[in-house]
Specification:
It is a single chain. This protein is α/β, with parallel strands linked by helices. Helices cover 36% and strands 23% of the residues. It is built from 21 helices and 27 strands. The strands form six sheets. An eight-stranded mixed beta sheet has the order 4-7-3-2-10-13-14-12, sandwiched between helices. Helix 10 links the parallel strand 16 and strand 17.
């Protein structure tokens, strides 16, 4: 399931009047996540979240991962307990299983949130290395596997530390070798920079844990400074390779824009800004709100100060202190949150919470399409008036970056229309109905999968898709359509034969926007007919003939949770930039 953003394609055969446009290649980034981040499999979603932010921005990602914390030592110990010595040629193949396990689980975590990801093994990746079995040096990359994986997928997760010797046996790249893997792959891909994600926010003049004197962080550090001070932070072989291949090495913490760039020149170190946890309030604790709350409660970067619900005494599927729940929006905002994440199921109540939060000086991210589609321009004006921000990417497309795709298209020129599958519940049900399921059975399956609400009328009657069409019109044309969006309803009498899809669309002609939500098999595009389950997809038409596409999971807790968490991360970065902390 792909969640790609702003892939510009040649115009469709069904649009013969469009001009043909070239297809630019997506930017590729290499990110490395060490065992200080991947302490256990429970941290895999954090890595998937960091990767999602890059994919949402239109990039393809090569994610290099270390073994989970302690796994390498455990594997070494197990092998040596059987008598395998340091020089044994079989030992590296066993130890490298730690990184391969991490790669597989991170790819699974990416897939859960709707990213089109794959994992390669050490042999499939094909880094060729020479030297000692446990401390080899990369000398080549076997062609095809990595390139083909990048051609087919948005995210390629690869194991660090391991390589293949010319005789076909697995070798290791020395302690900290995942750093070397990442720098080498960046060089082979022709990149000028690689990002190493650590549990510290850069390179310091001395160990930050040593409190005898204030630790000063380098914004830029030369290769020599990094070799002198890097210690265990960055592998020296990786620094040497970066220098010889001209690849700068960024060292930064998770979701931090700032850090240290290791390259040709140094800048004097200075105090690193203190970043206390941000106070966050959540409005709603259903499918999406509960998913967001579960993520926030275990993340030390955030301090959850309140959760708005109808019934504070109701049992929840996320462990949360009872003191955080409140039924009063006024009480929620009296707790002085910096950011409000709005995921209520009702439009009017959600709209009121968003306005009140902005007026109280809070930034807001919303997953409530009924709320934000009422007056998106008015909400943006209110946010600007109070010097705050309002984000709503999670309200359209779930984990599919539809808002970002439309914005990218509009930034490139005039947009004249869009067509989309916008409701994951309806798409899921249409697929089940097409397979022969009865209407009640398909609806029950959608509820069991976490896609349909207890009251599914908004989805089935097209109101959900219509609200999303209105919001996409605001993004595409700078205004919402006049009047109601015409809708088809999904009922027990609807035929799902022939690949019927619910298509939300709007076209601009002679200054008039014509929106609709239709159930039709006559959509003429394999992008829509190939969607499975809760899949969503979007096409955006530019006046110059270019077509932007994206697709991804359009419903479910984890995909939509990831989208609102990505909005939260953007708000945090913007707040830090405003304060001069990035």
């Amino acid at each position: 399931m792909s969640a790609s953003l702003a892939v510009v394609e040649k115009p469709e055969p069904l649009d013969p009047d469009h001009l043909r446009a070239p297809e630019p290649a997506a930017e590729v980034v290499v990110l490395k996540f060490g065992s200080s981040i991947l302490r256990s499999p429970t941290e895999a979603p954090l890595v998937a979240s960091a990767v999602y932010g890059h994919v949402r921005a239109g990039r393809k990602v090569v994610a290099v991962v270390s073994a989970f914390g302690g796994a390498t030592d455990r594997l070494l110990s197990e092998a040596r307990a059987l008598g395998l010595a340091h020089s044994n040629d079989l030992l590296p193949g066993y130890v490298a299983l730690g990184e391969e396990k991490s790669a597989a689980l991170v790819a699974i975590a990416c897939d859960r949130i709707g990213l089109d990801a794959c994992a390669l093994s050490v042999r499939e990746l094909g880094i060729v290395a020479e030297g000692e079995p446990e401390h080899s040096r990369p000398c080549g990359l076997r062609p095809d596997h990595l390139k083909q994986a990048l051609d087919r997928h948005e995210v390629v997760v690869v194991p660090g530390f391991g390589a293949v010797r010319p005789d076909g046996k697995v070798a290791l790249l020395g302690r900290g070798g995942s750093d070397l893997t990442a720098v080498f792959l960046a060089a082979e891909l022709g990149l000028r920079k690689v990002r190493l994600v650590k549990d510290v926010d850069g390179l310091y003049d001395h160990d930050p844990n040593d409190k005898s004197a204030p630790a000063l962080r380098y914004r830029r550090a030369s290769w020599d400074v990094a070799r002198k001070l890097g210690g265990a932070l960055v592998q020296h072989d990786a620094i040497d390779l970066g220098e010889s291949r001209g690849v700068e090495i960024e060292v930064a913490a998770l979701d931090r824009a700032d850090g240290t760039v290791i390259g040709e020149k140094s800048a004097p170190p200075g105090p690193a800004p203190a970043l206390p946890p941000l106070k966050v309030a959540v409005a709603g604790c259903g499918v999406v709100g509960g998913g967001v709350l579960g993520r926030l409660l275990v993340d030390p970067r955030y301090d959850v100060v309140g959760v708005l619900v109808r019934n504070p005494n109701k049992a929840r599927d996320v462990a949360c202190p009872a003191s955080l729940f409140t039924a009063s929006a006024e009480d929620l905002l009296s707790r002085k949150p910096d950011i409000v994440l709005e995921a209520l199921s009702e439009g009017e109540a959600g709209h009121a919470v968003i306005r009140a939060a902005l007026e109280a000086g809070c930034d807001v991210a919303s997953a409530n399409k009924q709320a934000v589609s009422r007056d998106p321009g008015g909400l943006q004006d209110l946010a600007k008036q109070h010097g705050r921000r309002v984000f709503w990417s999670a309200s359209v497309g779930g984990g599919s970056p539809m808002i970002e795709t439309v914005r990218a298209a509009r930034a490139a020129g005039e947009v004249v229309g869009f067509e989309a599958v916008l409701n994951g519940t309806v798409n899921f049900m249409l697929e089940r109905l097409g397979d022969g399921a009865a209407f009640a059975e398909a609806l029950a399956d959608a509820r069991a999968a976490g896609f349909a609400e207890e009251d599914p009328s908004s989805d089935l009657e097209g109101f959900d898709a219509a609200a999303k069409v209105r919001l996409l019109c605001h993004e595409a044309f700078g205004r919402s359509p006049d009047g109601e969006v015409s809708r088809d309803a999904l009922t027990e009498t609807t035929s799902a034969d022939g690949g019927v899809r619910q298509i939300g669309a709007a076209h601009l002609k002679d200054g008039v926007v014509t929106p609709s939500v239709r159930l039709t098999a006559d959509h003429g595009d394999p992008l829509f007919s190939s969607l499975r389950g809760e899949g969503n997809a979007l096409k955006v038409y530019g006046a110059d003939g270019r077509v932007w596409r994206c697709r991804g999971r359009g419903a479910g807790r984890w995909a939509t949770t990831e989208s609102i968490m990505a909005d939260l991360a953007e708000i945090v970065r913007a707040r830090r930039a405003d304060a001069g902390l990035n």
